[in-house]
């Protein structure tokens, strides 16, 4: 059965200290790390706090089979900041690559999942975070990588 959650793209871990976390992973041989490449502007962008979203810092490492993202949510209020404050460091979301961002978002909504945040670029790339914390223990995200 094919679902919108077939192809794991990344695991996002929220941390207190991004540089410290990167240094630890590097000491284990995980890396190289690079800044998350925030691509072109969104034609649709709905997040709980746009200033907090822009202030978040991410580092990524591409492994053979999946990407690890480390997220420092900053001090402004956001779902990631609240997660860190209430649960501590850990996996905030799993990101799944989809061939069609819009169709995957529609399918998630059809399945009854609420949306925390979403963004779409003119080229059809973008993301949608589903509020699956109560059922899955974490957030599930679908994303379409920019060409």
Report on the structure:
The chain has 147 residues and is of the alpha+beta class. Helix content is 27%, strand content 37%. It has a single domain (8-144), classed as 2,3-Dihydroxybiphenyl 1,2-Dioxygenase, domain 1. It has a nine-stranded mixed β-sheet with strand order 2-4-5-1-6-9-8-7-3. A hairpin with a 4-residue loop joins β7 and β8 (126-131). It is globular and about 40 Å long.
Keywords:
9-stranded mixed sheet, MMCE/EMCE_epimerase, 147 residues, alpha+beta, VOC_core, 2,3-Dihydroxybiphenyl 1,2-Dioxygenase, domain 1, globular, 5 helices
Care to give the gist of this entry?
The chain has 147 residues and is α+β, with helices and mostly antiparallel strands. Helices cover 27% and strands 37% of the residues. It has one domain (8-144): 2,3-Dihydroxybiphenyl 1,2-Dioxygenase, domain 1.
Average pLDDT figure: 95
Helical content class = 25-40%
CATH level-4 homologous superfamily:
2,3-Dihydroxybiphenyl 1,2-Dioxygenase, domain 1
* Number of domain units: 1
Radius of gyration: 15 Å
Query: Residue ranges: pLDDT <50 for 5 or more in a row?
Result: none
Class per helix and strand makeup: alpha+beta
Classify the fold: give the CATH topology.
2,3-Dihydroxybiphenyl 1,2-Dioxygenase, domain 1
Strand content: 35-45%
Q: Report the count of strand segments.
A: 9
Query: Gap between N and C termini, in Å?
Result: 26 Å
Note the overall shape.
globular
What is the CATH first-level class name?
A: Alpha Beta
| Number of helical segments with 4 or more residues | 5
Largest sheet: 9 strands, mixed
Organism: Azospirillum aestuarii
InterPro entries: Glyas_Bleomycin-R_OHBP_Dase, MMCE/EMCE_epimerase, VOC_core
Domain VOC: 7-145
Keywords: Metal-binding
